[in-house]
Design goal:
Low-confidence stretches: none
Number of strands: 10
Strand order of the largest sheet: 5-9-8-6-10
CATH topology: Rossmann fold
Structural class: alpha/beta
Mean pLDDT: 97
Keywords: Amino-acid biosynthesis, Hydrolase, Methionine biosynthesis
Number of domains: 1
InterPro entries: MTA_SAH_Nsdase, Nucleoside_phosphorylase_d, Nucleoside_phosphorylase_sf
GO cellular component, one term: cytosol
Bound molecules: adenine
CATH class: Alpha Beta
Pfam families: PNP_UDP_1
EC number: 3.2.2.9
CATH architecture: 3-Layer(aba) Sandwich
Strand content: 25-35%
Number of helices: 9
Distance between the termini: 13 Å
Shape: globular
Length: 248
């Protein structure tokens, strides 16, 4: 088994890149793929960059050029469920592109000619178990106390459900409320997961996990909260959960 590991920003995969054993790096176009091992598994780590096209390209290359047969995307998301706080973990078990709209030819959110608007992430149960194990076990030892304190992180909650993706940073209360109105079940919003899930679906049902840590509440302070979270703490949670997942 070979795992493709993806994150959108360098900060989100910094711990993985530092801690993995890399055997070689391969450049394809504007992407660099790091082949090696981590958590006792063969992995290929890549930075997807931001947005659905970037994520789709990187996922496709992982599958076609590097022969991965499992995909894990890890990173941060904005909360749409009002009970979620920064540091909480959201595991997507289905994903939807909230900016897909080919009406009146096709129903809103449906990906034309695929007859579906949601794409599954089959490794969600494994990802949820890993997140719970990481939080109960390694979190306290691995995240420096002052960083945990700065973000008020003690025992993050873990939720599994719908995550929505679009080529927009959601940084306003009205924008977030509109998305909640359209997708009341959505736990969080980000910019890549549904593209990764669609590619995995279309390439033969490759099992995928989309692991997201809440960085902000998609409101007026989202941009500031997001940047601080990404710069100061995201890598511990995103990397730690993936490591536990690989080790199991
Ligand atoms: N990723 C993290 N926070 C986000 C937000 N508010 N909107 C879109 N993607 C995000």
């Amino acid at each position: 088994m070979k795992f493709g590991i993806l994150g959108a920003l360098p900060q989100e995969v910094a711990l993985i890149k530092r801690c993995m054993t890399a055997h070689r790096s391969v450049v394809v176009g504007t992407r660099t793929f790091h082949e090696g091992e981590w958590g006792g598994r063969r992995i290929v780590l890549a930075l997807s960059r931001v947005g659905k096209v970037s994520a789709a390209l990187t996922t496709t290359l992982l599958l076609e050029r590097f022969g991965v047969d499992r995909v894990i995307f890890t990173g941060v998301a904005g909360a749409l469920d009002p009970r979620l706080r920064p540091g909480d973990v959201v595991i997507a078990d289905r994903l939807l592109q909230h900016d897909m709209d080919a009406r009146p030819i096709f129903p809103r959110f449906e990906v034309p000619l695929l007859n579906r608007s949601e794409f599954p992430a089959a490794l969600a149960p494994e990802a949820e178990a890993a997140a719970r194990a990481y939080i109960a076990g390694a979190l306290e030892a691995e995240i420096p106390a002052e960083r945990r304190a700065a973000f008020g992180i003690a025992t993050p909650s873990v939720r599994r459900g719908l995550v929505i993706s679009g080529d927009q940073f959601v940084g306003g209360a009205a924008q977030a409320a509109a998305l909640r109105g359209l997708q009341p079940d959505a736990l969080g919003v980000e910019m890549e997961g549904a593209a990764v899930a669609q590619v995995c679906h279309e390439m033969g049902g490759v099992p995928a996990a989309i692991v997201r840590v809440i960085s902000d509440r998609a409101d007026g302070s989202a941009a500031v909260d997001f940047q601080r979270f990404v710069d100061d703490i995201a890598e511990y949670l995103t990397g730690g959960i993936v490591r536990v997942m690989l080790e199991r």
